[in-house]
């Protein structure tokens, strides 16, 4: 639809007569395909896609939501190894997901329809804060119920719960739970014993936060 609209507006601008109107290119390139994103060594985003036939450059658009509105953030004609077109995003806010799509532009400034939109997030380079508000509550039937507050950082990926196993080896990993699940039920407790717990948060880079406060859970016999 974009290509058609552009072609129509160009038609309206035709010179009146006497020039080589026939040779004017009104055909937009095909929409780019294969848009993909990877996180590079600088923790920035490398977008690559397949070249469109007839294109001389590409416009990159970014939005905060999948359905837009999209704003143009760059033009590129760079290519990556393998001949795909390359755009590196170093400007989006770290830890937030954005949506990206690209268009192909030809020598006559005809613009293709947009590619499929894909999400991308520049990972946080700093660890998340320590999880807050950890409590351990005895559940007489099921075990010890841990609960803590959700971290506020947008790119927390998961939480680790560690517990002191009374085996002389110190604290060890008990479980990992995904973002949004700030609770865990420890069912492998020994009646009549106490267990100690703390929780950490991992961000999108896999960097682990400092530990929460340590709490004790006691399971009666
Ligand atoms: Ca919780």
Q: Layout of SSEs?
A:
Blueprint (H helix, E strand, L loop, with lengths): L1 H11 L23 E4 L5 E5 L5 E9 L7 E6 L8 E5 L7 E10 L11 E4 L13 E5 L3 E5 L8 E9 L6 E8 L4 E4 L6 E11 L11 E5 L2
Antiparallel strand pairs: 1-2, 2-5, 3-4, 3-6, 6-7, 8-9, 9-12, 10-11, 10-13, 13-14
Provide tags for this entry:
single chain; 221 residues; mainly beta; Immunoglobulin-like; 2 domains; 4-stranded antiparallel beta sheet; 1 helix; 14 strands; 41% strand; rod-shaped; disordered N terminus; binds calcium ion
Please, could you describe this protein's structure?
The protein is mainly β and 221 residues long. The chain is built from 1 helix and 14 strands. The strands form 4 sheets. Strands 4-3-6-7 form a 4-stranded antiparallel β-sheet, with no helix packed on it. It has a 4-stranded antiparallel β-sheet with strand order 11-10-13-14, with no helix packed on it. It is rod-shaped and about 90 Å long. It starts with a helix and ends with a strand. Mean pLDDT is 87; it is low at 1-15. Residues 147-148, 182-183 line the site of calcium ion (CA).
Radius of gyration: 27 Å
User: What structural category characterises the helix and strand content?
Assistant: mainly beta
Q: Mean pLDDT, rounded to whole units?
A: 87
CATH class of the largest domain: Mainly Beta
As an assembly, this protein is single chain
Residues in helix, %: under 10%
The major β-sheet equals: 4 strands, antiparallel
User: What's the total helix number?
Assistant: 1
What is the terminal separation in angstroms?
Answer: 71 Å
Strand composition percent: 35-45%
Q: In one word, what is the shape?
A: rod-shaped
